[in-house]
């Protein structure tokens, strides 16, 4: 009988879809989920100066970074052209300045990540964000070079209401 491992790692790649369209193969970092805790520092008092003595919870912002290795995948093309396109948004790189002044959330779509490996070793098996969209003030790069075109993008996962069991909660994504 084999001895149990000293460390039980979690690993495994994911297939990504945005608006039900394939995002393609990613670089070795895969999909990087980042949460930023928002808070108000309580750090200005006559007794403690600028020492952080408490904080007020003010929310949690989620972003997802990726670096696509298949520049022309329809899902990536949709994201490049998310606010408007002069051609087919799944097959051309033709973004326009349409829809200036519209709410960002109007253009958000469902992001779904599904683990390729079974459970275990991959956890979570799925991640679903119903309001995923290119992040405001993020940069999209189109590297025009003789090397393989990579596609670094950053998405924001906007919150929405979701009924889970008998409770309705505000979430940015759900997992299984």
C-alpha Rg (nearest Å): 20 Å
The residue-averaged pLDDT reads 93
Tell me the helix content.
under 10%
The strand count comes to 10
- Helix and strand succession? EEEEHEEEEEE
Specify the overall morphology: globular
Largest sheet composition: 8 strands, antiparallel
Number of helices: 1
Report strand %.
35-45%
Structural class: mainly beta
Tally of discrete structural domains: 1
Q: First CA to last CA: what distance?
A: 32 Å
| Spans of at least 5 consecutive residues with low confidence | none
Q: How does this model look, in words?
A:
The protein has 176 residues and is mostly beta strands. The chain has one helix and ten strands. The chain has one domain. The model has no long low-confidence stretch (mean pLDDT 93).
List the helices and strands and how they pair.
Layout: E1 14-18, E2 21-22, E3 32-42, E4 54-68, H1 74-80, E5 109-115, E6 126-134, E7 151-157, E8 160-164, E9 167-171, E10 174-175
Antiparallel strand pairs: 1-2, 1-5, 3-4, 4-7, 5-6, 6-7, 6-10, 8-9
Features:
mainly beta, 8-stranded antiparallel beta sheet, two-stranded antiparallel ribbon
Summarize the structure.
With about 180 residues, the chain is mainly β. It has one helix and ten strands.
């Amino acid at each position: 009988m084999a001895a149990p491992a000293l460390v039980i790692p979690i690993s495994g790649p994911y297939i990504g879809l945005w608006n039900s369209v394939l995002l393609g193969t990613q670089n070795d970092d895969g999909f990087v989920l980042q949460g930023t805790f928002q808070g108000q520092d309580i750090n200005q008092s006559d007794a403690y100066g600028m020492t952080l003595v408490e904080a007020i919870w003010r929310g949690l912002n989620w972003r997802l970074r990726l670096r696509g290795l298949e520049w022309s995948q329809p899902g990536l093309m949709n994201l490049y052209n998310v606010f408007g396109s002069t051609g087919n948004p799944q097959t051309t790189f033709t973004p326009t300045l349409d829809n200036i002044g519209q709410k960002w959330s109007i253009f958000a779509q469902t992001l779904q990540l599904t683990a390729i490996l079974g459970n275990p070793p991959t956890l979570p098996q799925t991640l679903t964000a119903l309001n995923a969209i290119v992040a405001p003030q993020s940069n999209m790069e189109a590297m025009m070079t003789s090397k393989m075109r990579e596609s670094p993008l950053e998405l924001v996962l906007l919150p929405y209401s979701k009924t889970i069991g008998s409770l309705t909660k505000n979430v940015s994504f759900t997992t299984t």
